[in-house]
Amino acid sequence: MMHISRFKALGILLTALLVGMLAVPNFFSEQTVKGWPKWAQRQVVLGLDLRGGSHLLLEVDTAALRRDTLEQLREDVRRVLRGDAGLTLAGAPVVRGNGVEVAVREGDVQTALSKVRELSRPLAGVAGSAGQRTLDIAHLGGGRIGITMTEPALTERVRQTVEQSIPVIDKRINELGTVEPLIQRQGSDRIMVQVPGFEDPERLEEIITAQAKLDFRMVDESMTPEQALAGRPPLESEILYGPSREGRPSYLIEKRVLVSGADLTDAQPGFDARTGEPVVSFRFTAAGARKFAQATTENVGKRFAAVLDKEVLTAPVIREPILQGSGQISGSFTLETAKDLAILMRAGALPAKLTTIEKKFVGASVGQDSIKKGRDASYYGAALVIVFMVVTYGLFGVFASVAVAVNVAMIFGVLSLLGATLTLPGIIGIVLTIGIAVDSNVLIYERIREEVRNGRTPITAIDAGFTRALATILDSNITTFIAAAVLFFIGTGPVRGFAVTLGIGILTTVFTAFTLTRLMVAWWIGWVRPQQLAIS
Amino acid sequence: MRLHPSIPMLRIVPDDTKFDFMRFRRVSFPASAMLSIVAICLYFFVGLNFGIDFVGGTLLEVKTKSGEQADLAKMRTSLGTLGLGDIQLQTFGTPDRVLIRIPQQTGGEAAQNTAKEKVKTALGDEVAVEREEVVGPRISTEMLATSTIGLMAAILAILVYLWFRFEWQFALGAMVANVHDLVLTIGYMCLMQIDFDLSSIAALLTILGYSLNDTVVIYDRIREMLRRYKRMPMPDLLNISVNSTLSRSIVTHVTVTLSLLALLLFGGHAIHSFVSTMIFGVVLVGTYTSVFIAAPILIYLGVGTTRAAVEETAEAVKA
Predict the structure, then answer these.
(1) Mind listing the pLDDT tens digit for each residue in A35-73?
(2) Any B CB within 8 A of A526 CB
(3) Which of these, A126, A319, A442, B226, is most buried using a 10 Å CB contact count?
């Protein structure tokens, strides 16, 4: 059995060579590799802990989203019943629990029910929700109608929010001018953002988590904000505040939106021609420009406000109709805040508020240091293991060392192929594999020793050694592989990197033990034709 | 004998060792039971030093800009007045680096940020922040839950695999042996107050994997011997199995230890606790367990019941 056909030998060597070759691009800089054909460009991705950068884990504020959605539902109910159906309501719609309750006159119940039912949509996107709709509508008796948001509808809403947020975040980060951000959805309501090389996690967080809902609205001048604060503000207006830099002045602002941030095409930071202070100039889309022109024409002499996330940035007086569809916001900006606001305006608003639940930042120098130490540990580890193996098993130890070297090359090859992330724990996984990989060889050699002692001839002993060690090697590696797989599924970030290299290391170890080591030994036998085997 | 071409050989373990490992079970079982109880007591009375991954909070690694030794006492006083709870400070690797741990603040994610900013302001311009991690309360609770479930799932999956490959007694024996490993390692982590974070879970799972690896190698041999020697008393058979795999066990442990030592000595401070846990678990406990616990426990689990009868008569004769 120690004879290996030429065809098979070629296959083994080619596999090892090809997989090992995949690691080659890692020895060259990214710039050099750029000039190579596309298939040869794959490199191992360094984790944030090795290259430095910022990491954020964001979560959709489900409670706030629920509140907003229900508030929207309340508005819709009021609109369809009062506006569309022209009913007189016995009681205004109110948010109650997971729904909205409204009271109509007894005679109007049927009309109201059918009208409200139009608001309910069938659910399509959620698994296991076939036939379900977004709203449960019931007559509670006495003219009261309960409209409840179904659980799948809320889940669907969260899912959509995450989906819509990702491109916005991507755009914002790209506007910052950074390279290769990683933005991934995690679970149902989370988004992971990693920006390599970006060393200011606070600024990143501010830019990503700002909802950036920008509206232009009219200032309500029917009373002063002080009056409104003392008594009750008009139903269609609300009290909003200016930036804290200016001492948070209060404004009474209409709820109605003239033009929203969605109507912008461009925004750029700049300086005011007269005062020289930083401003953000912007341009509307054609539709936005029309709306803005109309609103400013109707309201010359009154004040309007630019409101960002419930903060009044500025509230100037309209001196003349603004027809050209562009303008500028000034509001005691620094150059940096003007720049950030322009980014937010260009990238658009997030559909909901995002909260940071995990934030990590690693300085580039810490990463560099880790790489250097990891590399040192790998070299020393490999050297110690190789010396020990050669001293213990002689020529067979050399075979084992060659197998280990090929093994490490293959691990890097597979990592490059998968575009997997190498982290500091990942390096530990590789060094550990160096120590473990020789175990397969040890199992085989020890078995051969025993077979020789049991009186077999060298060639049959070697053959029996390989065959009998096979089952043991498989069993022992599969248990470790199970542990690595579990770790891959529960782990995040760096720890996952450990699971990846450990798992890949086990696969390449089993491969090299059964093919490469065997091939080397078979060739050696064919060449030397040993009469005695001094492996023992 | 000489290898051709001749290379001198170092024999790590002499051939045909005949240590009576099984006799030690009268010592090793009570000893392991005692140690396990100690480990469990350590867990309940001293407790694990949970890192921010599992309890939330903020971790800052700072470095003095001057490159001089950091004044821990001064930092401690200035941070102590902030009223943010028990802020831990320790030098990390070199004397100019300090690791600062701010405990979880009440008031959700935003409160962690405020606390961190306060600490940064209090530290002033003398230090630069090199690394920071903020873990919110929700994510940490979740991580603890997933890790516990993951660890259990791994144990279960391995149990099922072994059951499938061997008889149930072997699976159970391996399980007892390896839960014993995990318990002792957790005890060690309590004793040394090693930061228990996500990478500790990685260490525990790897220890589980490798000490099973060892156990499986011995079990494989026992199974083979059971087929070959139908009449041999169990303790003898187990002794032969352990002795015949002894050389392999030792060589493999030397190589694993060598690579772990390389990591410990050259891998830097960041992975120190991870590697020291692995050395304890894989090298110290794992090896002992597979020889002195996993193998002899098969006697009690009734592997080879027909042989058990032979063993009883033999012992009765001795007595």
Answers:
(1) 777 767 777 888 888 888 888 899 888 888 888 888 888
(2) no
(3) A442
Asked whether the ipTM of the predicted complex exceeds the cut of 0.85, the reply is: no
Tell me phi and psi for residue B94, to 5 degrees: -100, 155
Return phi, psi of residue A312, to 5°. -80, 115
B37 or A531, which is more confident?
B37
Length, in residues, of chain A: 536
Chain A residues touching residue B15 (CB < 8 angstroms): 449, 453, 536
DSSP per position, A183-212: EEEETTTEEEEEEET---HHHHHHHHH---
Taking phi over 0 as left and psi of -120 to 50 as alpha, with beta for the rest, A259 belongs to beta
The model's pLDDT over A197-221, given as tens digits with 9 standing for 90+, comes to 887 788 888 888 888 888 888 888 8
Which pTM was predicted?
0.78
The DSSP call for residue B2 is -
The residue among A15, A14, A26 whose CA lies nearest residue A419 is: A26
Q: Largest Cα–Cα distance of chain A, in whole Å?
A: 109
The per-residue pLDDT for B41 is 94
Chain B contacts in chain A segment 254-313 (CB below 8 A): none
Tell the residue number behind the tokens 């009469």, with chain if given: A531
Write out chain A residues lying below 8 Å of B115, CB-based: none
Q: A393 to chain B: which residues are within 8 Å by CB?
A: 9
- Of the candidates B63, B48, B135, B55, the residue with the CA atom closest to the CA atom of residue B99: B63
Span A330-345, pLDDT tens digits: 777 888 888 888 888 8
The answer on pLDDT for A536 being more than 70 is: no
